[in-house]
Amino acid sequence: MMRALKARPNIQTMAPYVQGQSEIGGIKNPIKLSSNEAPFGPSPKALAVIDQEKPYLHRYPDGDQSELRNALARKYAIEPSRILCGNGSEELILLLIRTFMEPGDELVMSEFGFVMYEVHGQAQGAKIVRAPERNFRTDIDAILRAVTEKTKIVAIANPNNPTGTCLSGSEIERLHRELPPSVLLMIDSAYAEYATDKAYEPGLDIVRNAENAVMLRTFSKIYGLAGLRIGWAYCPQAIADMVQRIRTPFNTNRLALRAAVAALDDDEFVAKSQAHNQAAVARMMTGLQEIGLNPIPTETNFILVQFSIDSPKTAERAAAHLLAAGIIPRPMGAPGLRHCLRISIGQDHENEAALKALAQFMTA
Ligand SMILES: *Cc1c(COP(=O)(O)O)cnc(C)c1O
Q1: Residue 21 pLDDT exceeds 90
Q2: Is the CB of 169 inside a 6 Å radius of any atom of ligand 1?
Q3: How far is CA 361 from the centre of its chain?
Q4: How far is it, in rounded angstroms, from Cα 249 to Cα 179?
Q5: Where are the beta strands (DSSP E) in the chain?
Q6: Alpha-carbon span 121 to 259, nearest angstrom
Q7: Residue with CA nearest ligand 1 atom 12
Q8: pLDDT of residue 187
Q9: Nearest protein Cα to ligand 1, atom 14
Q10: Contact 304/340 with Cβ under 8 angstroms?
Q11: What is the DSSP pairing of strand 127-131 with strand 106-110?
C-alpha cells in the first residue's frame, strides 16, 4: 500500500500568510504604505557600518550576539544575560512559543491582535483563543476571562498592530499581576518608540522583576532595518536560558548585528522620525476626518481607517482606488476588520497623495 506524504493536520488547515503588497502592475515606484516601514529609509549610522562589515561576510556572525546585547544592556540599564536577539522579533515569538507550548495548549490573544502569534501558535499545534475587544482596544478583563488551565502564553502587542491602540503601563501591570504564574505574558512593543501616550510603558519594568513576562522589541520599525531582520527580547534569566537552547547560533547575521548597534546610537534619526510621525499622524487624522472617514486614534506609525460597510464607499473599493493612484494600503482580512484599511505613515508628500486620493474616492 502506498501512502501519500502529508503535512501535520494543524499545518494543513493554516491559511498562508499574505505579505503587504509592494508592487502595482504597470506603476513605477508606487507609494508603499502597506507594511509600517520607516519613511526615511534606514538609519544613516547603520548604513555606514554595513559598508565596513562587507569584507567579513565570509565569516560566521558572533553566535553570542555579545556586542548588540551589551549595547542594549547599556542603553536600557538591563542585564545582557537576559537579552536574546532574533532574526526579527518575529523569530523570538516563534522561539518562545516553541519553548513553552505543547500541542493542545492555549495561546490567548486579543481579538484583533498581531497575526504572527496565531501563525506560530498554530504551527506548534496550540489552540488560539481570541478575547473580544472594546472599541478596537485590548480588553484586559476579557483576556483574563479567556485564560484556562491550558493557557501557556498571553500575547499582547502594545501598541497593537493593526488597530494602533495601546494599553497604559498600569493596565499591563494589572494584567500581569492577575495572570497565574504558570502563564507567560508576552509584551510585544514593536511600536514603543512611536507611542506618545504619557501613560504608555514598553514593559521593561514588569519584566525586570517578573518570572513570567518577556518584552519584545524590533529594529524593523523606527530604526528602518526591516530588511535586515533583527529584533530582541528581554526575559527573566530562566526563560532566556531555556530559549537559548533552541536558538540556533547564527540566527542573526553579521550585517544585522552591527547595523543594530549603530542604529541604537542614532538618537538624531530616531528623534527626527518621532517628530515627523507625530506631526504626520495629526495631519492625517484631521484630513481623514474632514473627508468623512473614521480613523482610529493611533500610537504607532500607521492608521487603521474605517470605511462604510455598505456600498459604494467600502474599504475594498477604496483600496482599488488607492492602487489605481499608485498608493498601496493594507486591506484587512480579519472578520470584524474587513471595513478597514491600514495605512502606514510615509513621507509628507506620500501622505498627502494618499489623502488626496481618498478625498477623490469619497466625493466621486
Ligand atoms: C512589525 C511587528 C513586529 C516586528 O517584526 P520583525 O520580525 O521584528 O520585523 C513585531 N510585532 C508586531 C506587532 C509588529 O507589527
Answers
A1: no
A2: no
A3: 29
A4: 33
A5: 31-32, 83-86, 106-110, 127-131, 151-157, 184-188, 213-218, 231-234, 294-295, 302-306, 327-328, 330-331, 340-344
A6: 30
A7: 190
A8: 98
A9: 190
A10: yes
A11: parallel
pLDDT tens across 117-148, in order? 999 999 999 999 999 999 999 999 999 999 99
Ligand 1 atom with least separation from CA of 229: 9
The pLDDT-based confidence of 291 (bands split at 50, 70, 90) is very high
Cell numbers representing residue 106 in the block: 492555549
* C-beta of 117 in contact with ligand 1 (< 6 A): no
What mean pLDDT do residues 34-55 have? 96
Kindly give the distance from the C-alpha atom of residue 164 to the centroid of ligand 1, in angstroms, as a whole number: 13
Indicate the residue type of 158: N
State the Cα angle at 105 between 99 and 106, rounded to 5°: 105
Contact 318, 341 (CB under 8 A): yes
Number of H helices, E strands in the chain: 13, 13
Sign of CA dihedral 173, 177, 179, 181: positive
Q: Distance between CA atoms of 305 and 289, rounded to whole angstroms?
A: 10
Contact residues for 17 (Cβ-Cβ < 8 A; gap 6+): 115, 119
Asked if 73 and 83 count as a contact pair (C-beta separation under 8 A), the reply is: yes
Q: Is 6 helix (H, G, I), strand (E, B) or coil?
A: coil
Bridge-based pairing state of the strands 330-331 and 327-328: unpaired
Determine whether the shortest distance from the Cβ of 138 to ligand 1 is under 6 A. Answer: no
- Which amino acid type is present at position 193? E
Which band of pLDDT confidence, cut at 50, 70 and 90, is reported for residue 17? confident
3-state SS, 28-49, equals: CCCEECCCCCCCCCCCHHHHHH
Q: What is the pLDDT of residue 109?
A: 98
Q: Which three cell numbers stand for residue 68?
A: 548588540
pLDDT digits (tens, 9 = 90+) for 145-158: 999 999 999 999 99
Closest ligand 1 atom to Cα of 91: 7
